Prior knowledge:
This protein is mainly α. It has helices spanning 3-22, 26-32, 37-45, 52-62, 66-76.
Amino acid sequence: MSAGSRDGERMLAELERIKERAGMSFAQLQAAVPYSRSALHRYFTGQAPIPRDALVWVVRACGGDLAALLRLWDAAQSDPVLGMRPVAAA
């Protein structure tokens, strides 16, 4: 496992942790952010790379540590396992 994949896994684990801590389902999270429930599910499971803007929305909606998640997101961008690639901000 490469360092990049560990970073990606850590980022996804932290996203799940803050979602659970906030007590939010994907449906509730969808109501708080401009992303569909299915897109959120793909991001959280690593089936699709999470855009930076989506990460910011999710972390703010869940009350997480944005700076920490952005550091993990930056580190995960070269993750070959999760297919993370830089995603341009909208």
